[in-house]
Design brief:
By secondary structure, the protein is mainly β. The protein contains 1 helix and 14 strands, in the order H-E-E-E-E-E-E-E-E-E-E-E-E-E-E.
Protein backbone atom coordinates (compact mmCIF):
# COMPACT_ATOMS: atom_id res chain seq x y z
CA UNK A 1 0.00 0.00 0.00
CA UNK A 2 2.91 2.33 0.73
CA UNK A 3 4.22 1.99 -2.85
CA UNK A 4 0.78 3.02 -4.18
CA UNK A 5 0.62 6.17 -2.09
CA UNK A 6 4.23 7.10 -2.90
CA UNK A 7 3.59 6.67 -6.62
CA UNK A 8 0.30 8.58 -6.38
CA UNK A 9 1.89 11.38 -4.37
CA UNK A 10 4.74 11.74 -6.84
CA UNK A 11 2.28 11.67 -9.72
CA UNK A 12 0.05 14.37 -8.28
CA UNK A 13 2.95 16.65 -7.48
CA UNK A 14 4.51 16.25 -10.93
CA UNK A 15 1.21 16.36 -12.71
CA UNK A 16 0.01 19.48 -10.28
CA UNK A 17 -18.04 -3.81 -33.20
CA UNK A 18 -14.85 -3.58 -31.18
CA UNK A 19 -11.82 -3.38 -33.42
CA UNK A 20 -10.92 -1.36 -36.46
CA UNK A 21 -10.35 -3.36 -39.63
CA UNK A 22 -7.75 -0.85 -40.88
CA UNK A 23 -4.47 -1.32 -38.93
CA UNK A 24 -3.81 2.43 -39.17
CA UNK A 25 -7.31 3.42 -38.01
CA UNK A 26 -7.26 6.69 -36.11
CA UNK A 27 -3.69 7.54 -37.07
CA UNK A 28 -2.23 10.30 -39.16
CA UNK A 29 0.70 9.54 -41.43
CA UNK A 30 3.81 11.68 -41.67
CA UNK A 31 5.68 12.46 -44.90
CA UNK A 32 7.57 9.15 -44.64
CA UNK A 33 4.33 7.16 -44.41
CA UNK A 34 4.88 6.29 -40.75
CA UNK A 35 1.90 6.30 -38.40
CA UNK A 36 1.64 9.16 -35.90
CA UNK A 37 0.29 8.05 -32.54
CA UNK A 38 -0.45 11.47 -31.00
CA UNK A 39 -3.92 12.86 -30.34
CA UNK A 40 -4.48 16.55 -29.52
CA UNK A 41 -7.14 18.80 -28.04
CA UNK A 42 -6.68 22.43 -26.92
CA UNK A 43 -3.14 22.03 -25.54
CA UNK A 44 -3.57 18.42 -24.41
CA UNK A 45 -1.36 15.90 -26.22
CA UNK A 46 -2.13 12.20 -25.72
CA UNK A 47 0.88 10.16 -26.81
CA UNK A 48 1.02 6.45 -27.71
CA UNK A 49 -2.01 4.96 -25.91
CA UNK A 50 -1.65 1.19 -25.60
CA UNK A 51 -2.92 -1.91 -23.83
CA UNK A 52 -1.97 -5.56 -23.60
CA UNK A 53 -3.51 -8.47 -25.47
CA UNK A 54 -5.89 -10.33 -23.17
CA UNK A 55 -8.55 -13.02 -23.22
CA UNK A 56 -9.88 -11.83 -19.85
CA UNK A 57 -12.69 -9.40 -19.10
CA UNK A 58 -10.46 -6.47 -18.02
CA UNK A 59 -7.79 -4.39 -19.74
CA UNK A 60 -5.47 -1.67 -18.49
CA UNK A 61 -4.88 1.28 -20.81
CA UNK A 62 -1.62 3.24 -20.65
CA UNK A 63 -0.53 6.53 -22.28
CA UNK A 64 1.23 9.86 -21.74
CA UNK A 65 -0.85 13.01 -21.31
CA UNK A 66 1.05 16.25 -21.87
CA UNK A 67 -0.50 19.58 -20.87
CA UNK A 68 1.01 22.14 -23.24
CA UNK A 69 -1.69 24.71 -22.39
CA UNK A 70 -1.86 27.54 -19.87
CA UNK A 71 -4.49 26.04 -17.55
CA UNK A 72 -4.83 22.78 -15.60
CA UNK A 73 -6.50 19.89 -17.41
CA UNK A 74 -8.18 17.09 -15.47
CA UNK A 75 -8.36 13.45 -16.54
CA UNK A 76 -11.90 12.37 -15.64
CA UNK A 77 -12.05 8.86 -17.10
CA UNK A 78 -12.89 7.12 -20.34
CA UNK A 79 -15.62 5.34 -22.27
CA UNK A 80 -15.49 2.57 -24.86
CA UNK A 81 -18.37 0.82 -26.62
CA UNK A 82 -16.43 -2.46 -26.31
CA UNK A 83 -16.35 -2.40 -22.48
CA UNK A 84 -19.06 -2.20 -19.82
CA UNK A 85 -17.18 0.31 -17.64
CA UNK A 86 -13.99 2.35 -17.34
CA UNK A 87 -12.25 3.95 -14.38
CA UNK A 88 -8.95 5.54 -13.37
CA UNK A 89 -6.96 3.18 -11.14
CA UNK A 90 -3.71 3.21 -9.18
CA UNK A 91 -1.40 0.31 -8.43
CA UNK A 92 -1.20 -1.00 -4.85
CA UNK A 93 0.32 -3.91 -2.97
CA UNK A 94 -2.12 -5.25 -0.39
CA UNK A 95 -0.96 -8.20 1.73
CA UNK A 96 1.55 -9.05 -1.00
CA UNK A 97 -1.13 -9.00 -3.72
CA UNK A 98 -0.86 -6.64 -6.70
CA UNK A 99 -4.09 -4.69 -7.21
CA UNK A 100 -5.38 -1.64 -9.00
CA UNK A 101 -7.66 0.52 -6.86
CA UNK A 102 -10.10 3.20 -8.13
CA UNK A 103 -8.82 6.78 -8.10
CA UNK A 104 -10.64 10.09 -8.44
CA UNK A 105 -9.99 12.42 -11.35
CA UNK A 106 -6.37 13.56 -11.75
CA UNK A 107 -5.31 17.14 -12.60
CA UNK A 108 -2.39 17.84 -14.92
CA UNK A 109 -0.78 21.23 -14.32
CA UNK A 110 0.24 23.41 -17.28
CA UNK A 111 3.62 22.34 -18.64
CA UNK A 112 3.45 18.95 -16.88
CA UNK A 113 2.80 15.36 -17.94
CA UNK A 114 0.70 12.56 -16.54
CA UNK A 115 2.13 9.16 -17.40
CA UNK A 116 -0.14 6.12 -17.20
CA UNK A 117 2.03 3.00 -17.10
CA UNK A 118 2.04 -0.51 -15.65
CA UNK A 119 2.26 -0.75 -11.86
CA UNK A 120 1.46 2.94 -11.46
CA UNK A 121 -1.67 4.62 -12.83
CA UNK A 122 -3.92 3.34 -15.64
CA UNK A 123 -7.40 3.33 -17.05
CA UNK A 124 -9.12 0.00 -16.31
CA UNK A 125 -11.80 -1.13 -18.73
CA UNK A 126 -13.98 -3.94 -17.43
CA UNK A 127 -16.52 -6.21 -19.07
CA UNK A 128 -14.74 -6.46 -22.43
CA UNK A 129 -16.98 -7.71 -25.21
CA UNK A 130 -14.22 -9.86 -26.73
CA UNK A 131 -10.52 -10.77 -26.49
CA UNK A 132 -7.89 -8.17 -27.39
CA UNK A 133 -5.31 -9.39 -29.91
CA UNK A 134 -1.81 -7.99 -30.50
CA UNK A 135 -1.69 -5.60 -33.46
CA UNK A 136 -5.31 -4.50 -33.27
CA UNK A 137 -6.55 -0.96 -32.60
CA UNK A 138 -9.33 0.08 -30.25
CA UNK A 139 -11.41 3.24 -30.29
CA UNK A 140 -11.52 4.92 -26.87
CA UNK A 141 -13.14 8.15 -25.75
CA UNK A 142 -10.92 9.91 -23.22
CA UNK A 143 -12.91 12.16 -20.87
CA UNK A 144 -11.16 15.32 -19.66
CA UNK A 145 -12.09 18.74 -18.35
CA UNK A 146 -11.68 19.94 -21.96
CA UNK A 147 -14.37 17.52 -23.13
CA UNK A 148 -14.17 14.19 -24.93
CA UNK A 149 -11.21 13.19 -27.09
CA UNK A 150 -11.36 10.22 -29.45
CA UNK A 151 -8.12 8.26 -29.34
CA UNK A 152 -6.88 5.02 -30.84
CA UNK A 153 -5.34 2.42 -28.52
CA UNK A 154 -2.76 -0.04 -29.89
CA UNK A 155 -2.89 -3.61 -28.56
CA UNK A 156 0.60 -4.85 -27.67
CA UNK A 157 1.75 -8.34 -26.63
CA UNK A 158 0.18 -9.86 -23.52
CA UNK A 159 3.48 -9.50 -21.63
CA UNK A 160 4.35 -5.98 -22.85
CA UNK A 161 5.75 -3.55 -20.30
CA UNK A 162 5.69 -0.52 -22.59
CA UNK A 163 4.42 0.71 -25.92
CA UNK A 164 6.22 -0.57 -29.04
CA UNK A 165 7.15 2.17 -31.50
CA UNK A 166 7.46 0.04 -34.64
CA UNK A 167 5.79 1.56 -37.68
CA UNK A 168 4.87 4.94 -36.24
CA UNK A 169 6.35 8.22 -35.06
CA UNK A 170 5.46 10.99 -32.66
Amino acid sequence: MTRFFLALGALLFTASPLLAADPDHGHDHNADGEVSHVFEQAGLHVVHPWTRATSGRDALIFMDLENEGDAPITLLGAHAHWAESAEIVGFALENGEERYLPLPSIPVAPGHDLVLRPKEVALRLSGLSEALVKGQHLDLELQTSLGELEIDVMVEAADATNHGHAGHSH
